[in-house]
Design goal:
Rossmann fold, Helicase, Ruva Protein, domain 3, 8% strand, five-stranded parallel β-sheet, alpha/beta
């Protein structure tokens, strides 16, 4: 069975890590200067490369080919020596990875601390990667804190978290902190194009843009969605934009455009009937609301300045963008902004509503019904 794409194309060197140049440069300089700290904290949204960067860094500082010749000294792991190969095969006894989500107790941390006093077997450093470290219990975090204060010289801690606000300040103060950013759509598209060429995957021009937009800055999610699309389309078929919409349960832009026309014309009755029709046809109304917000945002940006949106950045075709521009010609940006705020509020209330479509119906009334 072939590995899933996000495992097959997981970066194995700093040069393959995308969207985090500021972090890569800092870590590279510290390796070249042999200025390695005892503890690092990687924070940021899921799928932004925190654990991957930690593994690459662990390889680089333990690579037997680095630092032996000043003229050829490199911050990149060679991926050929025994240390690199063991880490890549997840067989290194000097790299210990712990998922704090399932090892939250003080006993788990004490067991980790007991192993710290032993020197590394095959490497220069014994590296501990603690993922989702914000989920450690208070007693476990305090036990870890004591070790972070004065760790042995052969130990490096790499902590990763998606919720840094839950970390205790005393741990934060003992780590070098690196904040990972959400990946930008063009960065995700570029990497997806690279993978598609390598895997001989055919795709429509707008398909990868749609995948990137719906990954919400997480490249792991983008790779997983690409994998799912390949399975859906078949190995010999092209990935189509419509297929992605079916997989994600996305609402057609043409339907949203029709609905917005009814709102602009203040046709309360037809707009409410349209919503009922959506519900009767099994459309996910929460997804409808999200797509409506996305669409109105595009309307507002186009109204403010057409240069703010391109087909690649918006996930819409040139024809759809021109259609939006024409549709909103009679509106002021304040009108669009008001509609956008109303639907943002409606979408947030849907999860608590006894009748799922009621907040959307009230939004329609707010926008279309004449004031008394």
């Amino acid at each position: 069975m072939s590995p899933v794409l996000y495992r097959k194309y997981r970066p194995q060197s700093f040069s393959e890590i995308i969207g985090q140049d500021h972090i890569v440069q800092t870590l590279a300089n510290s390796i070249l200067a042999s200025n390695i700290s005892h503890a690092y904290l990687f924070s940021g949204p899921r799928g932004s490369g925190k654990t991957t960067t930690a593994r690459v860094f662990a390889k680089a500082i333990n690579c037997s080919q680095n630092g032996h010749n000043e003229k050829t000294a490199s911050f990149e792991p060679c991926n050929k020596c025994n240390s690199c190969l063991e880490i890549m095969a997840q067989k290194s006894i000097d790299l210990i990875e712990i998922d704090a989500a399932s090892h939250t107790g003080v006993d788990d941390v004490r067991a980790l601390i007991d192993g710290i006093r032993f020197s590394p077997v095959n490497s220069k450093y014994k590296v501990f990667i603690i993922d989702e470290c914000h989920q450690l219990s208070k007693s476990a975090a305090n036990a870890l804190l004591k070790t972070l204060e004065e760790p042995p010289s052969h130990v490096i801690f790499l902590l990763a978290t998606t919720e840094i606000h839950k970390m205790i300040p005393t741990i934060l103060s003992r780590c070098q902190r690196f904040d990972f950013k959400r990946l930008r759509v063009p960065e995700i598209i570029k990497k997806l194009e690279f993978i598609s060429r390598k895997e001989n995957i055919k795709f429509e021009d707008s398909a990868l843009s749609l995948i990137a937009l719906n990954s919400r800055g997480s490249f792991r999610d983008a790779e997983s969605l690409l994998d799912e699309c390949v399975s859906f389309s078949g190995s010999n078929s092209s990935i189509k934009t419509d297929d992605i919409k079916d997989i994600l349960g996305l609402v057609e832009i043409s339907q949203i455009s029709q609905f917005v026309d009814l709102l602009i014309s203040k046709n309360t009755k037809e707009a409410l009937l349209f919503l009922n029709s959506m519900a009767d046809n099994g459309i996910d109304l929460q997804e409808f609301a999200k797509t409506m917000i996305f669409y109105l945002r595009q309307c507002l940006l186009l109204k403010l300045s057409p240069d703010l949106l391109t087909p690649q950045l918006s996930g819409l075709s040139e024809e759809e963008l021109q259609s939006i521009k024409k549709q909103t010609e009679s509106l002021q940006h304040k009108n669009i902004e008001s509609m956008l705020k109303i639907f943002i509020e409606a979408e947030s209330k849907m999860k608590y509503s006894a009748i799922l479509q009621l907040p959307l119906e009230l939004a329609v009334v707010d926008i279309t019904y004449p004031e008394s």
